[in-house]
Specification:
heterodimer, A: 230 residues, alpha+beta, five-stranded antiparallel beta sheet, four-stranded antiparallel beta sheet, 4 helices, 29% helix, B: 273 residues, 12 strands
Amino acid sequence: MSRFSPYDNNGGSCVAIAGADYCVIASDTRMSTGYNILTRDHSKIYKLADKCILASSGFQADMKALQKLLAARHLIYQHQHNKQMSCPAMGQLLSNTLYYKRFFPYYTFNVLGGLDNEGKGCVYTYDAVGSYERVGYSAQGSGSVLIMPFLDNQLKSPSPLLLPAQDAVTPLSQSEAIDLVKTCFASATERDIHTVSSRVLFLPKYMVYLMFFFLLPVMPSLGNVENVAF
Amino acid sequence: MKLDTTGLESALPLFGANCQMVDGFTAAPAFDLPTTLDFDGFQKEAIQMVKPAKGTTTLAFIFKEGVMVAADSRASMGGYISSQSVKKIIEINPYMLGTMAGGAADCQFWHRNLGIKVCRLHELANKRRISVTGASKLLANILYSYRGMGLSVGTMIAGWDETGPGLYYVDSEGGRLKGPRFSVGSGSPYAYGVLDSGYRYDMSIEEAAELARRAIYHATFRDGASGGVASVYHVGPNGWKKLSGDDVGELHYKYYPVTPSTVEQEMVEVSGA
């Protein structure tokens, strides 16, 4: 008799690339369970702070719970410190939040992207229980094993552990990075049943002077990748 | 002077207690536990999801000038390399280092907890730095209280305190050993071979760094689960200092350069007709 499992995998992939003064975070929008598609229109991206965006793939119920918890903690932080949380601070908060559920983990594979205190792009990548590191680019989710080798080949970011230290952010321009991400999803769609690229949400981040654009609903066209600017 | 002993209190998780994160000042975190009859079975299943990054090579040894600590940087999930740039040498505080082997999240979290809660609180409460003996003992006690719950930690605490250089091995079974040389991880047999045969107590810092680097390189050469960047740190009386971080692929060609062999017969293009 099969035991009740509290987990499910809703599939999908997330990618983030850090640049010199921007960060691109993208995810696909398919939510599935087994071979069934639950919806084609579910974003895995969530804005935690002005300069900090979370993208998670895995079990979407845990993802929702995690987003709510982090948003609440961020609100408390804002009330206590009168400012928004920086991306590195949110990075450590997410790591601790995940580890507090070490014995009943959140089944989410997260990528946190944004701008650090100096305005450089930063990407933090996590496993399900909170181990994290700052990297120049990352992919998580069902398509990650397909996307990561491609990004390794194209971006070839030097390891942050090397001494003398080399910059991990990519020298690409923002539009080049966006094109690269579109290509990633197009390739992953070819070989991963849980990832599609009919609609991919981007959140390119400029420096402090970014104004909010309203979410532009874009008609999905077959096999084409649209972007929604935020 | 009354010593602060809050760090010695049991860190056992409180059953049914809510997450105490908002409070922020409790010394020991309280973990939510799943309500299930079969805790061990559930942990076995849950751990499959995480597939903790094992497979590593870390080493540390004491010598005349202090402690040398080195590690690779590969994290693997089963057969997939999840990262080539994992920081396995964790800077607990400016004069103490911890190495990571076993579950990445477990090591990161408990070292961070050690540095921030245990060591810094001790310094503030007692107006002097905590010793390596003390820090490793507190970590070992904390890990012992979670024994059997599936944590996977194999760490070395290296530092310099009032008694000189200190090196302890601490693991998630609750074991704690004091010793002059340790290597932990899947690549440790290879590292031990190089380390033990080349070790002398009276080495200079450069010689010791080169020994550590070579030991990590040889382990990454033969162990598939180790690789990436070989980091070497030195802990001296003024604290730790990162000495080098070299890609092991480049180290290979540095130690075994490609010599062009003499050409005996050479094929050349012949112009048509």
